[in-house]
Design a protein that fits this description.
Blueprint: H1 2-11, H2 17-24, H3 28-40, E1 61-69, H4 78-85, E2 90-95, E3 102-108, H5 111-122, E4 128-135, E5 141-142, E6 145-146
Antiparallel strand pairs: 1-3, 1-4, 2-3, 5-6
Helix pairs in contact: 2-3
Length: 160
């Protein structure tokens, strides 16, 4: 039941306890209690709204930065990852398998701002051996939501 409630909220954070109660058959007060506990124990970390900023003329520059790291004794990659995720420009930080160790999603107002972050804040961190920056040219879909889609083409029925 808890997983079902969490999946509903993950899909639409604006779903009320009463609506979830109707969907799951769980009493509304119990749903509210489960949600409150999930927020308290940080199972629910944040409620999120996805905004297409281009629609309001406030575009952001997004970049994916691959980071090669020398792991540190006794803490591995965690210490360097923590230093990186403390920067407000770092929107997401992931440990990867493969050629690079960390993937950092960065947002800024301009390409220059993102480049400054990489050259002045990220690259100088002790243990960072190299970075590769990929600027996002266009976002099509984010967190399961299509940002700019074509209208669905519906076929006309053929009448014989």
């Amino acid at each position: 039941m808890i997983k079902e409630i969490l999946k509903i909220l993950e899909n639409d954070a604006r779903t009320t306890a009463k609506q979830i109660s109707t969907m799951t058959g769980t009493p509304s007060d119990e749903v509210a209690k489960i949600i409150k506990q999930a927020e308290k124990d940080r199972t629910i970390l944040k409620y999120k709204t996805i905004i297409n900023w281009e629609k309001v003329g406030d575009e952001q520059v997004w970049a994916l930065i691959e980071v090669k790291v020398a792991p540190q004794r006794d803490v591995g990659f965690d210490s360097i990852a923590e230093r990186i995720y403390r920067f407000p420009q770092a929107r997401s930080v992931y440990l990867l398998s493969g050629t690079y160790d960390l993937l950092v999603l960065v947002a800024g107002k301009t390409m220059h701002e993102v480049a400054d972050f990489v050259s002045q804040k990220l690259a100088p961190i002790e243990g960072v051996q190299g970075t590769v920056t990929h600027f996002m040219l266009k976002r099509y879909k984010e967190d399961g939501e299509i940002l700019e889609g074509r209208e669905e083409i519906r076929r006309q029925p053929v009448i014989l």
